[in-house]
Amino acid sequence: MKARRLDRDDVLGVGIDLQERLLPAMAGKEALEAAWVKWINGLRTLGVPVIVSQQYTKGLGETIPSVREALASEQYFEKRSFSAMGAEAFRKAVKDSGKKTILIFGIESHVCMQQTALDLMEEGYRVYVIEDACSSRSLHDHEMSMRRLAQAGAVITTFESALFELLDTSESPDFKAISAIVK
Predict the structure, then answer these.
(1) Cβ-based neighbours of 150, under 8 Å, separated by 6 or more
(2) Is 71 helix (H, G, I), strand (E, B) or coil?
(3) Rounded distance, CA 38 to CA 77, Å?
(4) No. of H helices and E strands in the chain?
(5) Which DSSP helix (H) or strand (E) runs through 43?
(6) What is the residue-level pLDDT of the chain in tens, covering all 183 positions?
(7) With contact defined as beta carbons under 8 Å apart, do 179 and 46 qualify?
(8) What is residue 114's three-state secondary structure?
């Protein structure tokens, strides 16, 4: 993949399985939840759309309340396959967004998030993994997933780096709001 900067007009935020019964088992769960909320608030401030998957909601619960609040009116997609791309409604939403760059985050890094990212790349999307907004039960699994995705062509970055890249300049009318979100 040719290196290029993020363009806020061509990005879609994709959250994978930010759910009530999954989060408690994740490494660094408090920092992870805080990162999700800041990241989503930043994307919404910049006008970037966000869609979210839920794996087997009946068994794993809803998206956590703090994320639901940050998302407000965003869409949720039920899935049973590990890759969200296995859910036809999710796949259609990604395609219908018209965006070619996906900013993916969620859990577990080495299962559902990784498989979704790989499938997105296979279909020609540019994938940026928001590393500090991803986790697994095991930090080792998370680290291995980041390595594998980087080797496969994904860009590994952080939510603050991505937000400021989308912002582009301190002269942007959104600069103060983004600065307040990341602090």
Answers:
(1) 156
(2) helix
(3) 21
(4) 8, 6
(5) helix 29-45
(6) 556 799 999 999 999 999 999 998 999 999 999 999 999 999 999 999 999 999 998 999 899 899 988 998 656 899 999 999 999 999 999 999 999 999 999 999 999 999 999 999 999 999 999 999 999 999 999 999 999 999 999 999 999 999 999 998 999 999 999 999 998
(7) no
(8) helix
* pLDDT tens per residue, range 16-31: 999 999 998 999 999 9
Q: How many CB atoms lie within 10 A of CB 95?
A: 11
The DSSP letter of residue 98 is T
CA 111 centroid distance within chain: 14
Sequential DSSP letters for 118-181: HHHHHTT-EEEEEEEEEE-SSHHHHHHHHHHHHHHTPEEE-HHHHHHHHH--TTSTTHHHHHHH
Strand-pair partners of 51: 14, 75
